[in-house]
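Same chain as my last thread, 256 residues:
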Amino acid sequence: MCLISVVIPYYKKKPYICRTIKSVLEQSYRKIEIIIIYDDPDLNDFFFLKKIIKNNKKIRLYKNKKNFGASKSRNIGIQHAKGNYIALLDGDDVWSKNKINLQIKFMKKNNLLFSYTDYKIINNEGRCVGVRKVKNYLKYNDLLKSCDIGLSTVIFHKSIKNLIVFPNLSTKEDYVVWLNLAKKKILMKGLSKQLTSWRKVKNSLSDSIFQKIIDGYRVYKIYEGYSLIYSLYRLIVLSLNFITNTIKEKSFINSR
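reply #2:
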């Protein structure tokens, strides 16, 4: 059984972090380490985390010298990871009990360096408000149209950790990474099981449509190097697919 590293950046997630950590510690796959990167200048939550972690040898807590943001915090966590595989998890999301076990089996069976899964969308109270069904196989041209990979569903092999470098964006930072991997012909396959619950928190950066539009444009213009006109075109396509996917997410719940 190989070691799995779980990287969690932390910034003002106190209402949710205990449930997040618990969902990792209760995994049916037992050989894990949790790496928490504390990114808040306010140290109140740091001492709170130290208290709930206590002497748990599976958890390592690192404190940034200043607020770097989620992207750089993830990069720091990935470099600290000792596992054969590295899983990404935000501090307010949760996993189902068999998430790691099923996904690692899926990756080994298909000889994958990178995988993702379907996921549920939950609100502040933990109630499911949508489901995101993802394609089983994604190439660069697929991702250009729609960023369908949920960050907290991702597991990748340590051999590509140097390719997983998140840029300094408020949102869509993961989109840049997935596009880069696709360009480098890394096989990206999805497991069609809802193994993660992604929390949609009101008034957060991830909930800001305006910020997503700005960062979406930056992805195409700055990181993909497209022209102004083509970047705007790609942004329109991305936005339309986002609306379509949002409708599908809600309709899936209504049809149950």
